[in-house]
Amino acid sequence: MRRSVLLLLLLPLLATAQDEWEWAPADYPPMYYKETPFGYEKLDSLPVVTLRDTVYIADIDAFLGSYVGDGTNTAKIGGGHFVMIAGPCSVESEEQILEVAQKVKESGAHILRGGAFKPRTSPYSFQGMEGEGIDLLVKAKKVTGLPLISEIMDISQLHYFDEIDVIQVGARNMQNFLLLKELGKTDKPILLKRGFANTIQEWLMSAEYIMSRGNKKVILCERGIRTIEQATRNTLDLSAIPVIKEFSHLPIVVDPSHATGYAKYVKPMSLAAVAAGADGLMIEVHNDPCAALCDGPQSITPDAFDKLARSVEIIRGGMKQAQKL
Prior knowledge:
- The chain is α/β, with parallel strands linked by helices.
- It has two domains: 43 residues, no CATH class; 265 residues, TIM Barrel (Alpha-Beta Barrel), CATH 3.20.20.
- 38% of the residues lie in helices and 12% in strands.
- The strands form two sheets. The protein has an eight-stranded parallel β-barrel, surrounded by five helices. Strands 1-2 form a two-stranded antiparallel sheet.
- Helix 3 links the parallel strand 3 and strand 4.
């Protein structure tokens, strides 16, 4: 009984000592641990992305190949520039990718997305058209002038990406450090998706792997994390947007398609992402979602994308007014 009482009396002191040891060691510079959600050890490991002296702007026009005729087809990400990335989860045919590309461009998309190499949970699912899919993307680029973004799965595929303007690293490869190191040696913008079970600190450190090798053109993409909730495919962590903007200079776009897994939730979460300060959206658009070979339930139609794009502009206008208050 006496021991129990003594322990109860000592617990507040023990907790205080633990908090002081973890958050405020006497020999640690205060600037690194005050008012951070990470704790001093984690914040100290972010030497590059915490720099606030520059704002990264990815000017895709600077990396376009010879298919941009008059140089007017450009896309900028970050620094106040909002980008709409749209297209099918997977390239399935020439007719499909050309139709979607033309329609999303008409609705205001800045970059065309399309998967040629697809990491699928089941080995029996559609794995993508690979090199042929890349060729069809390049054809869509010739027709529309839209810059391209597509996912790489392995560094051995890099030679396919000569005419792809932005290389996407998917959630499953967020901590494929060998791949990240090699992409750090390239001069192309890299869109780095957050792993579905990774913390923001781990995500930022993956960005460091790319930037530490010389490639500073990193774009972050929040695509939802895995939680106990099963009503949606993942849980869209919109709090990541202001946290990233506080601790990093990198632009962040949001993928509400993979985050929710349902087309009906794409619009409300897109608008919420815009209100939270996202630098762009990445939306899956398919001309016939019911017949899609990959992620049909979360793909919206071109008509739905057109309405979404107009709604986004309304929210952006309202946010500009709200920020003046």
